[in-house]
From TrEMBL:
<feature type="transmembrane region" description="Helical">
    <location>
        <begin position="31"/>
        <end position="54"/>
    </location>
</feature>
<feature type="transmembrane region" description="Helical">
    <location>
        <begin position="303"/>
        <end position="325"/>
    </location>
</feature>
<keyword id="KW-0812">Transmembrane</keyword>
<feature type="transmembrane region" description="Helical">
    <location>
        <begin position="199"/>
        <end position="224"/>
    </location>
</feature>
<feature type="transmembrane region" description="Helical">
    <location>
        <begin position="245"/>
        <end position="267"/>
    </location>
</feature>
<dbReference type="GO" id="GO:0022857">
    <property type="term" value="F:transmembrane transporter activity"/>
</dbReference>
<protein>
    <submittedName>
        <fullName>Neu5Ac permease</fullName>
    </submittedName>
</protein>
<dbReference type="Pfam" id="PF06808">
    <property type="entry name" value="DctM"/>
</dbReference>
<feature type="transmembrane region" description="Helical">
    <location>
        <begin position="420"/>
        <end position="453"/>
    </location>
</feature>
<feature type="transmembrane region" description="Helical">
    <location>
        <begin position="506"/>
        <end position="527"/>
    </location>
</feature>
<feature type="domain" description="TRAP C4-dicarboxylate transport system permease DctM subunit">
    <location>
        <begin position="12"/>
        <end position="362"/>
    </location>
</feature>
<feature type="transmembrane region" description="Helical">
    <location>
        <begin position="61"/>
        <end position="81"/>
    </location>
</feature>
<feature type="transmembrane region" description="Helical">
    <location>
        <begin position="460"/>
        <end position="486"/>
    </location>
</feature>
<keyword id="KW-1003">Cell membrane</keyword>
<feature type="transmembrane region" description="Helical">
    <location>
        <begin position="101"/>
        <end position="134"/>
    </location>
</feature>
<keyword id="KW-0813">Transport</keyword>
<dbReference type="InterPro" id="IPR004681">
    <property type="entry name" value="TRAP_DctM"/>
</dbReference>
Length: 533
């Protein structure tokens, strides 16, 4: 055990030392595992032939994983919506909904943050977009800089917890394997599987509740200290109509319903729902840009706009036809009714394909398609490179006896299982200052989750707690990622100290929400049990 502990400790020291030294995480993990295995084999403590298992591990973990196929599609959906200025439309128009309420602009920023979180799931893009568009407006209307900055940072991090979050997709994949492994260790060879849909359902109540707590805090501040967040005066010019607000609000809302609803209703797997999201995002982006170009008088765009709009309708028609008729058209189901529905489905599919082609044409003309594809490839490549590096790291960690070391350490922590859970939460919180969520999920979860989940800990509850923990660390000074994102786009009059002061109340709210979910696991487990029972 002593030798194993030394090897495992050195493995982590080398890995994190190289990360802090500026080496990319994927190469740091794989490199640390390789060189530590070389050194250990030199002293006769490791069988170097273990590396022969690396190709099969990578193939099984990354290349043949249907759940992770959803990740590039969700990333594509988020990048499309970010590049197409859907966020800009939301922020511009939603600010008029609650602007005359106490702290109305702050509340509208939180609403938009929640919608963008659910439709894009990209924290950096959300914080930057709201920082560029909302922060100057809030300051112009007399908002205290710290409150404005805190509202934007906190709202931007909602993408960590509100589904369909990319964090939850990665967590769902890792927790599924860890839970099955943990249950086999204790003799349960047929446990109920944990899916990404379970985590999505489990995060709904905590995520929406957290957004409501943010808005409640802003409303209270608006009532008690109106000078910090004054409502917009009634006589200011306001040409925004309800129709404009609905046009800005409905597209991302319908996209969220299509993606989340299909998963929670069991109609589609996360991968299929991600495909729906990417398709819907592409159509929404094409529709917005074609309408904008048509308004500027450019030829051909009104027709493209109509084609794309028809394709959006077809997306919702197809699942309805599938639910009311058997479209397989085998001999047993050939009836007049099914044939009519089949013909309608073929027509809707044709319209959808034509609309997608029109949307792609619009994006190409606007020179947006190349940027969308490049950004999607960059983020996806980063995620899967880290996954491959973490897979190699995990293999060597287990070969060094790391599982036994972690189990022994967990057993020494006071408080039993819940004491170990608190310790893991603190570890994740601290690592969130230095590592991205992808790195934490792929490095820490395969190591600690199998040990934690051997007890009566519910895996969905555990996953939601980890997601909330990561969100808190993204907000916490001085290293929170959201703070750096906002600092990069904030005007000079907003000091770094203002940003730090502004997020402190939201961190307190976040910790309160975490403790509530920790104390009442049913907040995370009730909805999955109702939907999937």
């Amino acid at each position: 055990m002593a030798t194993d502990a030394i090897l495992v400790s050195l493995l982590f020291i080398v890995a994190f030392g190289t990360v802090l030294g500026g080496i990319p995480v994927a190469f740091a993990l794989a490199g640390a595992a390789f060189w530590m295995s070389v050194i250990a084999s030199f002293f006769g403590l490791f069988d170097f032939s273990t590396f022969a298992a690396v190709p099969s591990r990578i193939y099984g973990t990354a290349m043949f994983n249907e759940v992770l196929t959803a990740v590039p599609l969700f990333i594509l959906m988020g990048v499309i919506l970010e590049r197409s200025k859907v966020a800009e439309d939301l922020l511009t128009n939603m600010g008029h909904v609650a602007r005359r309420l106490p702290a109305g602009l702050g509340i509208s920023v939180t609403l938009v943050g929640a919608l963008l979180a659910a439709s894009t799931g990209i924290v950096g893009a959300t914080v930057v977009a709201m920082g560029l568009l909302s922060l100057p407006t809030m300051l112009k209307h007399g908002y205290k800089p710290s409150l404005a900055a805190g509202s934007i940072c906190a709202s931007g991090t909602l993408g960590q917890i509100i589904p369909p979050s990319i964090v939850l997709v990665f967590l769902g994949d890792q927790l599924s394997g860890a839970y099955m492994e943990a249950q086999r260790e204790i003799g349960n060879f047929s446990p109920d599987p944990v899916s990404v849909g379970d985590l999505f359902a489990g995060a709904m109540i905590p995520g929406i509740g957290l957004a409501c707590l943010y808005m409640l805090y802003q409303l209270i501040i608006g009532i008690l200290r109106p000078q910090d967040c004054p409502p917009v005066v009634a006589d200011e010019e306001d040409n925004t109509s309800m129709q404009q607000i609905l046009v800005a609000l409905l597209p991302p809302l319908l996209l969220i319903i299509a993606v989340l609803g299909s998963i929670l209703a069991g109609v589609a797997t996360p991968t299929e729902a991600a495909g729906v999201g990417a398709t819907g995002g592409l159509l929404l982006a094409g529709l917005r840009m074609s309408r904008q170009d048509a308004a500027e008088g450019q030829q051909g765009y009104p027709l493209l706009s109509k084609l794309i709009g028809s394709a959006i309708v077809a997306i919702f028609v197809l699942p309805v036809l599938r639910s009311v008729a058997d479209l397989r058209m085998t001999l047993e189901v050939v009836t007049t009714y099914n044939m009519i529905c089949f013909a309608l489905a073929v027509a809707a599919s044709t319209v959808l394909i034509i609309g997608l082609a029109a949307a792609l044409l619009v994006l190409m003309r606007r020179k947006q398609l190349d940027q969308i594809v490049q950004n999607t490839m960059k983020v996806s490549t980063l995620a899967f490179a880290i996954l491959i590096g973490a897979t190699i790291f995990s293999l060597i960690f287990r070969s060094f006896g790391g599982e036994h070391v972690v189990t022994h350490v967990m057993e020494q922590i006071p408080g039993g299982t819940y004491g170990a859970l608190i310790a893991v939460s603190l570890l994740v919180f601290v690592l969130g200052f230095f590592l991205d969520f992808i790195e934490i999920v792929f490095i820490i979860m395969p190591i600690v989750a199998p040990v934690i989940l051997q007890s009566d800990i519910n895996p969905v509850w555990f996953g939601v707690l980890i997601a909330m923990n990561l969100q808190t660390s993204f907000l916490t000074p001085p290293f929170g990622f959201a703070l750096f994102y906002l600092r990069g786009v904030a005007p000079p009059e907003v000091k770094t100290a203002d940003i730090y002061r502004g997020v402190l109340p939201f961190i307190a709210i976040q910790i309160f929400a975490f403790l509530v979910v920790f104390s009442f696991p049913a907040l995370a487990t009730w909805l999955p049990s109702v939907i999937y029972r």
